[in-house]
Design goal:
The structure is a homodimer of 306-residue chains.
Chain A lengths: L12 E3 L4 E3 L1 H18 L8 E6 L3 H12 L3 E8 L3 H18 L3 E5 H4 L3 H7 L4 H20 L3 E3 L4 H13 L3 H6 L3 E2 L7 E3 L7 H10 L16 H15 L3 H13 L12 E2 L6 E2 L5 H19 L1
Parallel strand pairs in A: 3-4, 3-6, 4-5, 6-8
Antiparallel strand pairs in A: 1-2, 7-8, 9-10
């Protein structure tokens, strides 16, 4: 490993796309500067905002929480317990330990208490678990942030996540999804502002930050995510990146800067409050309330059968 | 292999993205229909046009020549001998034999006689061989078509070629190149119309057509193309296609139909005739004439040294 570009220490990480070797101290500084620059470039939030980080217990969400806390932002955490056995229990424990360590609040929402755990819902629905889980996480993130008075929700999506989603949307040229792909989803229509401060750092950079910051994070992937197509796109992108460092960053940033503004935006989605829970939806009853109704019906049927 | 979808014969090919098994006779018919439909959809040319197919001696260019000839179009061939040793000699021989077989003319242009062979030019320039070769092929295709009075140039680019180029242009979001990516490049400004009738058939489909038509084509790739990035994008696209048949066709067609029209087109390139040869160029002297001058200078220097 080369020497750190900023001091005479031995480098601990080399960033090929930036042609930069850095020691531990300067890497942590570089990472936090990059996060802060991203926050400012996309006008995500300020030091006055009450920010809620959606944490899974993994390197990205705990890392972004740590970086924003270190940068002096007011950030609390929200852990949504999905009820996926030991994976969820361990994740919650690590998230709680981290919150205690930095002395910030961690709110916990249990899917089991609010609707049903993911294994139960997966049984009920013929949809991929990731799709159900995504819907529910977005719903409870938004609901909780509003209820507790947070003005911004932070998620830990990194550059690799964003590139994989972008690749999927590009391969099918889904204009509606492409237009929504941006580091900031504005507030309004019942939605709290949602931002991705890690969108310009790679998965490897994020893992290295969490590791060097001494964060005790969950290393296992969610058992339901195995074979999900976004993971395959990640592998493909990594291969291209290996051969040509900087490809991911250019692919994402040039899309955001040059191409996205050219895409014709569809008319408003005609969002209205769900007739059951009041959360924003495009139909009369939102997908989470429909899921809940289906669950109730299935329980009633089971009772009848006995 | 399943039975042919059109008769009771045993299928020889299965097309997963079309969910279609076909026998030899019906596959050749399917392929030619698909080529004709592509020609008509994009208004490429009519039976009145004098068409020149740029042939390399490979499956795609000889295949498209065969299909257009079988469909009753007036198509002659142009072989540009690149002077790449045995590879070029064998390719020319196979192109000539094919022309004789279908009773059409094959024009031959030798790079060595007109400027210099690719190995010599590669020595002279610090550019990838494929880039020099592409420039020269486009130049002599256009020049020859005009000189001989052909109104359309056909190239054998297939869906895999187009997807690999599209993927490269998408990864760097090169808008100028993206806008140019279309099955037809219109005539004008000194350029003959250029079209790609195989743009909606895959490499595998094209190879199968050439094979089942009994065409004796060159199977080796050009020795200079090994490791070219477009080939790696082909491998990546093939992996995605394998997991999700139809991805390539959708990626290309949806781009052409939906996205390309949204991209802001740059102003005209201000093409003007080259002051040396008169072919269209964006500078005073075209890149081929500059290459020729450089070659002359290098020869003069070598003479001085002796």
């Amino acid at each position: 490993m080369r020497k750190c570009a900023k001091c005479s220490e031995k480098g601990v990480i080399y960033l090929p796309q930036h042609r930069l070797a850095l020691c531990k101290t300067h890497y942590l500084e570089w990472f936090e500067n990059r996060v802060e620059k991203t926050v400012k470039t996309f006008s995500m939030f300020s030091k006055k905002d009450d920010i809620l980080v959606a944490v899974s217990g993994g390197k990205d969400s705990l890392g972004v929480w740590h970086a924003l806390w270190a940068l002096g932002y007011k950030v609390d955490g929200l852990y949504i317990n999905l009820g996926i056995g030991e994976y969820s229990e361990l994740s919650e424990k690590k998230a709680k330990a981290f919150a205690d360590k930095i002395g910030r609040k961690l709110h916990v929402v249990s899917l089991k208490e609010n609707i049903a755990d993911i294994p139960t819902l997966k049984e009920l629905q013929d949809r991929p678990a990731c799709s159900i889980c995504g819907t529910l996480k977005r719903y409870y993130m938004n609901l909780t942030a509003k209820k507790l008075g947070y003005s911004v929700i932070v998620t830990g999506h990194n550059l690799d996540d964003e590139c994989a989603v972008l690749m999927g949307n590009v391969l099918s040229w889904n204009i509606e999804y492409l237009v929504r792909q941006y580091p900031v989803l504005e507030e309004g229509n019942g939605f709290v502002r949602k931002v991705k401060p890690l969108c310009l750092v790679s998965e490897k950079e994020s893992a290295m930050y969490a590791f060097l910051s001494g964060i005790d994070f969950v290393e296992d992937e969610c058992p339901y995510s195995v074979g999900a197509s976004s993971i395959n796109y990640k592998l493909l992108m990594s291969k291209i990146e290996e051969e040509s460092p900087g490809t991911k960053l250019r692919f994402y940033l040039e899309f955001i800067r040059k191409v996205r503004p050219m895409l014709a935006i569809k008319k408003d989605l005609h969002l209205r409050p769900c007739q059951v829970c009041g959360e924003p939806t495009t139909s009369d009853v939102c997908s989470v309330c429909r899921l809940r109704m289906r669950l109730e019906n299935s329980k009633a049927e089971m009772r009848r059968d006995f």
